[in-house]
What we know:
The chain has 265 residues and is an alpha+beta fold. It has two domains: 8-67, Arc Repressor Mutant, subunit A; 73-250, Beta-Lactamase (2-Layer Sandwich). The protein is built from eight helices and eight strands. It has a five-stranded antiparallel β-sheet with strand order 5-4-8-7-6, sandwiched between helices. Helix 2 packs across helix 3, helix 4 crosses helix 8 and helix 5 crosses helix 7. The radius of gyration is 22 Å and the shape is elongated. It starts with 7 loop residues before the first helix and ends in a 15-residue tail after the last helix.
Amino acid sequence: MAGTYFLESVDRVMKVLDAFTTEAPELRLTDLSERLGIPKPQVLRIVSTLETGGYLVRDPHTKRYRLGIQLFHLGMVVRQGLDLRRVAQPYLQRLAAETRETVGLFVADSHGPVCIDVIESPRGLRIFAAAGRRMPWNAGTSAKVILAYLPAEERETILARGDFRRYTNQTITDPDRLRAVLAEIRRTGHHVGIRDLDDEGLGVAAPIFDHDAHVAGAISVAAPVSRTSEEEVCRFIDLVRTAAAGASRQLGHPVPIPMSAAADD
Length: 265
């Protein structure tokens, strides 16, 4: 399957980025062309595009290219995700065993939260999830929990973009209504979403905080609405909050997660 979907142009881009090493942190256009065996005009198109996106930086004096800050940002997302996944894994496993429903771990990304770990329910009727899936900001429980605790400026930038997609009749697309939901999440420390991403889905999520009290991600449990009673939802809330608080302590969060965590309205 990898061969079927192989894109030679993307492969060239990856080879250009891979050419930069600790031994060769800066390279000229000629260096890249010779190292990779790619004609200079093709290399120029690649590096110019990467420079526009912030993935490469060109020194105007030496004419040499070096890796850009955007790659640093992506690396930090990967590092945070790997560290968080390792820390959260025992809590995810315990939550999955206690609920027998699908549990997931999500981290923020500029284009929408990403699922970095998932344990699916063993039941035949279940909510499906997939690691690597990107979620919308306005639907699903973990996405809204993460959005609620992002710094105010970052949160407002996302809300100001608007153009939120409607997934079900319960999906919130109005930014002002979404702001009210986010404020309620910060007040309670968790979120229950019903049929806003999936017509048959119900989710409960709570935030994970790092040692600086910044939101590091969210833990969620998702189940079919048809078999989830009000009492079960209350139990899920307690279990999810406990799991998220445990992961937060492992990341160095010094105090119990407050009902209204230190996120600015």
